[in-house]
Amino acid sequence: MNSYDVAIIGSGPGGYVAAIRCAQLGLKTALIEKYSTLGGTCLNVGCIPSKALLDSSHHYEDAVKHFEEHGIDIPGDIKVNLKQMIARKQSVVDTTTGGIDFLMKKNKIDVYQGLGSFKDATHILIKGEEETEIEAKNTIIATGSKPSNLPFITIDKERIITSTEALKLKEIPKHLIVIGGGVIGLELGQVYKRLGADVSVIEYMDRIIPTMDSGLSKELNKVLKKQKFKINASHKVKSVERVGDEVIVKADNKKGEEVEFKGDYCLVSVGRRPYTDGLNAEAAGVTLNDRGQIDVNENLQTSAKNIYAIGDVIKGAMLAHKAEEEGVFVAETLAGQKPHIDYNLIPGVVYTWPEVASVGKTEEQLKEAGVAYKTGQFPMRALGRSRASMDLDGFVKVLADKTTDEVLGVHMVGARAADLIAEAVVAMEYRASAEDISRMSHAHPTFAEAIKEAALAATGDRALHV
Ligand code: FAD
Ligand code: NAD
Fold first, then answer.
1. Which CATH architecture does the domain made up of 160-270 adopt?
2. Which of 94, 226, 234, 431 could make an S-S bridge to 254, C-beta 3.0–4.6 Å?
3. Which NCBIfam families match (predicted)?
4. What is the pLDDT of residues 157-183, one digit of tens each?
5. Cα three-residue angle 157-162-165, rounded to 5 degrees
């Protein structure tokens, strides 16, 4: 039987990054994955394929709506070749997951394909084509998550679908009904909206992206409405039924009146649930909480002291970069180091266009905590860069402590916000004040100038270009 210092169950961004860091630190490492490709949800059916389709559909929309204004005439009709679009997405996925195979070999990590299942706290059965057993002094559980559902909905994977099926549809829906106005619903909703579908979003809460700063929800709502999304907030879905090729969704609106939606596809995107099926966690003495997450302490250690858990299967934001930080954290802890994660500084991004990005505290959180703060906001449309590219929607908002001027949160909607948020993360990591940001030179013309201008606004109405 092969013995390891560390076995990692699950090869998503949490698991494979943990494996690389363990190997870098000299630990003999095994990685177990039940699917034939590495990379987990993120690389196979999550972050990467969704961004590939967002980019392709964005190009199409630009060609149809904006090329003419830029002075680019295309003779004949511009058409979507969905089969090719999905094939390109798949080749991006294949190249990316293939890259993980390379990294495992390079770092001399033993990869086992099969379902990992605890026999006890130091032995794992791997049920693949053959059954193998390995011994591990320490194990990291990185088994991730699966789509959640509502109890009365049957996902048939044809017309009533999750994100996994939405990434490989064979036709463009005529009317896509999206249940859940969160990240997946809006990103994939926008893909099909751009390709020509009508999209109706049904959200239970009173606003889309309800966990982000309410200013971002409001701005994104405004922009999506301009893009002809039909957004139905404060709607409680009560039934989803397939009749032939039609899907009928019934919901109660704020007034308690029944509203009916008829479409040809329904995407259920109401969150994801931690995944521990087949893991046999109890045999290792690993306990779950009442939400099905693996219980961990501040060192990400489970109720079994040689077993750790990271990523979507534990509490916290279900984000690839959060899982990666936790993978590094556990590897370094096992090697005797004293790592640290500041969860307040894990950014959140929605890859719609305009993009939405956020780090630190929202206004709602600051109000609830009774923190005295000041706000500086700057509209993207006031930037020369925005006019040059015709990306006028959105703003940057900087929230700073009223007394000390320390930046407490940065929230933005706009072109390239997903990349711009890194500046805010760096600033907050070094506990910058709004004044610090406002005195840094920002290249002109860039979208990043909006961050400087918002910081100037936060320090006392000093924005230069409004
Ligand atoms: P996962 O990536 O879920 O990986 C877990 C792996 O464990 C899987 O491969 C699974 O097969 C394997 N496994 C489970 N049980 C066993 C077992 N018993 N034995 C062996 N293997 C097992 N996040 C972002 O930060 N940015 C984005 O842009 C983004 N886009 C997304 C888009 C979509 C459509 C979806 C669905 C998710 C997206 N996410 C995004 C979320 C992101 O994918 C997850 O947060 C991330 O994948 C979590 O990583 P993980 O390592 O915890 O688990
Ligand atoms: P989410 O939590 O972002 O959104 C789910 C939405 O569904 C919420 O707005 C919620 O209020 C709503 N909802 C819940 N129950 C409902 C009901 N009964 N009727 C109507 N609406 C209901 O979850 P998601 O969009 O499914 O994504 C799952 C996870 O994947 C998220 O945690 C997210 O962080 C991650 N993800 C991240 C990215 C990214 O980083 N860009 C992209 C996709 C997914």
1. 3-Layer(bba) Sandwich (3.50)
2. 234
3. lipoamide_DH
4. 999 999 999 999 999 999 999 999 999
5. 60
Nearest to 11 by CA among 34, 36, 39, 37: 39
pLDDT recorded at residue 381: 98
To the nearest 10 degrees (0 to 180), the angle between helices 47-61 and 183-194 is 30
Joined together, the tokens standing for residue 386 give 């925005």
Place of tokens 């002075």: 71
Q: Is the dihedral of CA 459, 462, 463, 466 positive or negative?
A: positive
Ligand closest to 300 (CA) is: 1
User: Which CATH number fits the domain 345-458, given the four candidates 2.40.10.10, 3.30.390.30, 3.30.420.40, 3.40.350.10?
Assistant: 3.30.390.30
Distance 181 CA to ligand 2 centre (A): 7
**How far apart, in Å, are the Cα atoms of 2 and each of 23, 30, 93, 174, 373?**
16, 9, 31, 54, 57
Nearest residue (CA) to ligand 1, atom 38: 46
Amino acid sitting at position 443: A
- Lookup: tokens for 390: 């015709």
> What pLDDT, on the 0 to 100 scale, is given for residue 307?
98
Tell whether omega for the bond before 354 is within 30 degrees of 0, i.e. cis: yes
Ligand 1 centroid from CA 172, angstroms: 26
Residue with tokens 């045999």: 283
The model's pTM: 0.98
Q: Determine the residue type at 224.
A: L
Q: Cis (ω within 30 of 0) for the bond into 274?
A: no
Ligand 2 atom 44, closest CA: 184
pLDDT given at position 26? 98
Record the tokens describing residue 159, joined without a space.
């017309």
3-state secondary structure of 297: coil
- Give the chain's residues under pLDDT 70: none
Binding site feature residues for FAD: 51, 116, 143-145, 312, 318-321
In sequence order, the β-bridge partners of residue 93 are: none
